[in-house]
Amino acid sequence: xxxxxxxxxxxxxxxxxxxxxxxxxxxxxxxxxxxxxxxxxxxxxxxxxxxxxxxxxxxxxxxxxxxxxxxxxxxxxxxxxxxxxxxxxxxxxxxxxxxxxxxxxxxxxxxxxxxxxxxxxxxxxxxxxxxxxxxxxxxxxxxxxxxxxxxxxx
Length: 154
Known about the structure:
This protein has two helices and six strands; from the N terminus they run H-E-E-E-E-E-H-E. By secondary structure, it is an alpha+beta fold. The radius of gyration is 15 Å and the shape is globular.
């Protein structure tokens, strides 16, 4: 495994639409392993492939004891919107309020290419929505309000 560089908000790759994954081989597994290591190092709760410079439909989730991988994800159901604070490792020290579903159902593939479906609630649902936005070139700041930047030394 290797830690990868995280692309920041001004990088054009974060505004591009990621491509569907069709090859579920060792190259994909290495990328996902590297994404886990990068996410751990950054202290984030999620990471999309384009945040490490790869335009593929992949993201991971790290929350509590969960370490989930989503390839070619699609949110197929959402319920009850709530507003909460979000940030992003590609937008350091910036936070804002974002309206997201409280509950979602997502269909995706695992690293072996097997399809699965999950119903997620609360922060897990928020993370999946945030990372899914990354895959279509959207940053949380595009839909946030009450944006705040925490300056160094604050």
